[in-house]
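Ex. 9. Protein: Tyr recombinase domain-containing protein.
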Amino acid sequence: MNNKRLKLPNGFGSITKKSGRRRRPYEIRKFIDGRQKVIGYETTYESALAFLCEYNKNPLLFSPSEITFDELFCLVKAYLYPRIKERTQSSYNCAYKHLNRLYDKQFAKIRIGDLQSAIRDIHDNGAGYSTQKKARQVLHHMYTYAVKYEIIPPEKDISRYIDIDKDKKVYKKTIFNTRQIYKLFRATDEHRYAKMILMHMMLGTRPSEFLAIEKTDVKLRQRYLIIRESKTEAGRNRIIPLHKQTLPFWIEFLAENNKYIATDNNGIHLNYSRFRTRFDKTLIELKIKRHTPHECRHTLASLLNNADANPTAIKRILGHASSNITEKHYTHKDLHQLKKAMDLIVFKY
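Predicted C-alpha cells for Tyr recombinase domain-containing protein:
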C-alpha cells in the first residue's frame, strides 16, 4: 500500500508521531486562539485523522477537485475503520494494495475504464473472485464517501458498474459421514485437534464463530455457550447447547489457562489459517477424506435434520434468519428445547 500521508489543508490541524508514547503515540494539534495546542492522542494515524475530521466537522476543507485516490482512501479509513472489525480492516487493506495503479489519479477524474483496468490487474496477477469482490467493496465505500461529502455528484458513482470474474465453485461441499465421525471420536484419547473438530462440528458454528469463542462465553453447568461474533445479525449473541458426548472435551479445554477455546498445544490462539492447517493434518493422519472446516456446520445441520429436530430449533442453533414471521417474532425456543433438539443426536462409536 502507498505509505504517503494525506497532506492536511492549512488550518486543518496536524498529526505527529511521538516516539516516547507507546500506547497512544499520535499527537493531534490545532491552532486555537493563535497558539498550536494539543487536543488529543490516538493509537493509529487513521484514528487520529478521524478525530481531527470530527473536530473540524468539514472534510470539504480538502479540495474536491484535487484530492487523489490515495488521499481519499486515507479519509475513508479514518471514517470507516473505527466502525468495522480488525479482520475486515485487514482484508480491505490487502484488497487496496491491488488498486495501486489508481493511487495518484485525481479521484474526480477517474473513469470506469480506470477501475476495470485495476480489476484486470488483479485477474492478471492470479487473484480470483474473492479478491476482486473485496476490491470492489473498497471502491464502493470510497465512492459512497465521495458522494456523501460532495467530492463527486451522485451520478458519478461508477462503482456500481464494475465487472468482476464469476465465482467458480472449485470444490463441492460434503458432510462428514458416520464412519468418519466415529474415527474422530476414537482418536480423541490422544489427539487434541480431533476433539476440537468434534467440538466445532457439534456446535454448527461458522469457523470464524468457533475461533472467537472465549472461555467466559461457555456456561458449562447449564450446558450451553453464547456466540458473540457472527457475520449475520441472526447469528450474534445466540445460544447453542453443548452436545453431551463432547462435554468431556469442553471440560478439558476450559481447565487450560487460555482466553480462547481454540488454541494450540502452547496456548496460542488459532487464527483461521493455523486452524485449517491443523484441521487438514488431522484428517490426513486419521485417513479421513478431504473436508473443509465449514463442512462441520453442514454436518450438524444434516444430523439435526435426519434426527427430525424441530426446524425452528435448527435455525436458532445455526443462527439462520427466519423468513417466517411467526417463527421470527412469536416462537421462542428456550434452552431446554434447544437441548432437546441437540440430544436427538447420539453416536454409538
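Check your answer against this statement. The first strand starts at residue 14 and ends at 17.
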